[in-house]
Design brief:
Layout lengths: L2 E3 L5 E3 L2 E9 L4 E7 L7 E8 L5 H20 L13 H9 L4 H20 L9 H12 L12 H20 L26 H11 L4 H13 L3 H4 L6 E2 L4 E4 L10 E4 L5 H10 L9 H4 L2 H12 L8 H12 L4 H8 L4 H6 L5 H8 L6 H6 L7 E4 L8 E4 L1
Antiparallel strand pairs: 1-3, 2-3, 3-4, 4-5, 6-7, 7-8, 9-10
Length: about 400
């Protein structure tokens, strides 16, 4: 049997996995390759779509959806364990994602909200979940308000919790607790999130002035964040992370785990703090009180509100570091290494170019530039190397 792969669709449907539609040289029809579970034997089915059919791409999509329906109908005859409720979920989350990891804590919190909804709707087991429940959950969740801020839960929060429900229902199908996953392919449109702005030099000066009256750990965290671009969870540097022989700081467990580990140079802006850490023989730069660590986001939100800068948050320090570095002329690939971004797409999300930035580059393309140069006029800006505070960056100078 000879296959000619036609890489048109690649669709995963939970337990049912349709891998692709393909052509066979000995057949005028397209065929589907699929399996009934991960690691299961591959199966093949002829589709009622010919290679020479006009509009075959749309016809293939319809045929694959029809094939999915037929297979799910056959599986509906298999028995379901109706005695199984939701009691297995907390242990499953802890086993799969880790109870003490950031992901595990987030999923456990999301499950608490889902469990409250199921209790109210009397959805006592996976087999009783219906697709309408998933859409009703969005209204249920957005009607609730946050305990401390009094603001309504966002639609994006509900959407993220439904994503977890989809993963849990996939597992429920695999365990025989449900015949299908109604939380699959909901395609709920999310809300546009507010763009985190760059911290201006005036705002930075104001923040540092207010921080003089704040706890010491907040002063150090802000200084490290805006000087290195590290996330808040990475700013509490320990003595073991500082490699003086290599003149660098190692971030072993950043967001994404050990596989995303990276290192940054010891920037001049943070060298005094690291030297003090070494001389004092302390374990870490600072220690966050347990009462604040549990509501860290709220602590910083209250601080910026008190400072009169409610549009800012701590993560704006990372946006500021990236934007200032790119504006100073640091190549994007280098900046990605400095802040541990996995792709240029993510890096560009953090760049806040202004009209003045664009105007300074657009001036280089002025048609009168050549005439000015011939007359001995002003020269275009050139890149030169200098130590620019913490970045040791490139800057424009005339």
């Amino acid at each position: 049997m000879v296959f000619c792969c036609f890489d048109l669709l690649r669709i995963c449907y939970g337990l049912l996995v349709i891998l692709s539609a393909f052509e066979r040289k000995d057949s005028p029809f397209f065929w589907a390759q699929y399996s009934l579970g991960r690691g299961e034997k591959k199966r093949y089915r002829r589709l009622d779509v010919r290679k020479d059919d006009p509009g075959r791409a749309d016809l293939l999509r319809i045929a694959l959806h029809r094939l999915e329906g037929e297979i799910l109908a056959d599986r509906a005859l298999s028995p379901v364990d109706h005695d199984s409720g939701w009691g297995w979920v907390p242990g499953y989350i802890e086993t799969r994602w880790g109870g003490k990891t950031a992901t595990g804590r987030i999923y456990s919190k999301q499950w608490t909200a889902l469990a409250e909804f199921f209790s109210e709707r009397e959805t006592i087991r996976p087999s009783t979940l219906e697709r309408t429940d998933c859409f009703d959950y969005v209204e249920f969740r957005t009607d609730q308000v946050k305990y401390r801020s009094g603001k309504h839960i966002s639609k994006n929060t509900a959407k993220g919790e439904l994503k977890l429900l989809g993963m849990l229902m996939d597992e429920a199908v695999l365990r025989g607790m449900a015949r299908e996953n109604p939380a699959r392919r909901l395609r709920i449109e999310g809300e546009e999130t507010a763009e985190k702005p760059e911290i201006s030099e005036e705002e930075e000066a104001k923040i540092r002035a207010v921080l003089k009256e704040a706890p010491g750990w907040m002063r150090l965290a802000f200084h490290i964040g805006i000087s290195t671009g590290l996330r808040h969870g990475e700013c509490c540097l320990t003595a073991a992370q500082v490699r003086w022989a290599d003149d660098q700081v190692v971030i072993e467990k950043p967001k994404g785990g050990r596989k995303r580990g990276f290192a940054i140079p010891i920037y001049e802006a943070i060298r005094p703090q690291l030297l003090e850490l070494r001389n004092s023989r302390r374990h870490a730069l600072f220690e966050i009180p347990a009462s604040d660590a549990k509501i860290l986001g709220i602590v910083w939100r209250r601080f910026f509100d008190k400072t009169g800068l409610p549009h800012l948050c701590f993560h704006c320090t990372r946006v500021t570091f990236v934007t200032r570095g790119m504006r100073a002329g640091i190549p994007e690939a280098v900046m990605m290494r400095m802040v541990n971004h996995g792709s240029s797409l993510i890096s560009r999300v953090y760049q806040r170019w202004t009209s003045d930035d664009v105007r300074s580059y657009a001036a280089l393309l002025s048609p009168d530039r050549a005439v000015d140069d011939a007359k001995g006029g002003s020269q275009p800006p050139k890149l030169s190397r200098r130590k620019a505070g913490s970045q040791g960056a490139w800057t424009f100078c005339k």
